[in-house]
Amino acid sequence: MGKSLIQQKRGKGSPRYRAPSFRYKGRVSFARYEEGKTINAQITDILHSSGHSAPLMELKYSNGEVGLIQAPEGVKLGDKIEMGNEVELKTGNILPLKSIPEGTSVYNIESNPGDGGKFVKASGAFARVITKAESGIVVELPSSKRRTFLPECKAVIGVVAGAGRTEKPFLKAGTRFYAMTAKNKVWPMVSGTSMNSVNHPFGGSSSHAKGRPTQSSRNSPPGRKVGKIAPKRTGRRKR
Q1: From CA 101, how far away is CA 121, in angstroms rounded?
Q2: Residue whose C-alpha is closest to residue 33's, from 103, 81, 70
Q3: CA-CA distances (angstroms) from residue 74 to 44, 94, 175?
Q4: Whole domain around residue 121: which residue ranges?
Q5: N or C: which terminus of the chain has fewer CB atoms within 10 Å of its end residue's CB?
């Protein structure tokens, strides 16, 4: 029979681990855009949202829409932002990847045209346009992995603001606790071998000598599906 693990609490949706989405400022996305047209916008506010690691800039578009986008480094209140195929290559402007030269730093890249941006959204992050072809645009992501996007996918020029956020020490466990609670993170993260046997299959007085396999079947019940789940292979690779 499976155990009730702390890792399962968030999926259950209990109040302790429910996302405080009522405190979030809103969804980050681009305004509705018609091909061939240019939309102007003005930064009306710089916001802090507990659901985002980077500061957000509130944009008021010329078509009457109001939206949120991660603020890039170097912008300020009142700056003008443009979105279109032929707009200036300036920090904060929004262009399709086909209009962005190689070597340019971009963020908030759309996975499919019109989805509002899915890639490179964390504070201090940026991607770089590597090569351009008719079939797609190759972009190097912050993980150094290269991914091909459709030429019509839009992105923002610049680097996401808030770099160095992770370099400041928390100093106190209580400060870290409240920071993690604001973002709906289960903290502290405890190793299964450090728990009691009632809380985890790997727990108990034997400590790190687990006494049972660390692999589990794909069909294992909740509470037992821990460790290496249906691994293709384990152990050292023979040469």
Answers
A1: 20
A2: 81
A3: 15, 15, 29
A4: 21-72+89-165
A5: C
What's the pLDDT score for residue 218?
92
CA 30 from centre of chain: 17
Q: What angle do CA 121, 127, 116 make, to 5 degrees?
A: 45
Residue type, 6: I
Q: What CA–CA distance (Å, rounded) separates 189 from 191?
A: 7
- In this structure, what token pair is assigned to residue 73? 């480094």
Q: What is the pLDDT of residue 33?
A: 75
Neighbours of 144 (CB within 10 A): 6
Q: What is this structure's pTM? A: 0.76
Q: Which residues of the chain have pLDDT under 70?
A: 1-3, 7-18, 206-207, 210
Within this chain, do residues 66 and 184 fall inside the same structural domain, yes or no?
no
User: CA separation (Å) from 85 to 43, 71, 91, 96, 150?
Assistant: 20, 21, 15, 6, 14
Q: Which of these three, 136, 165, 194, is where a domain ends? A: 165
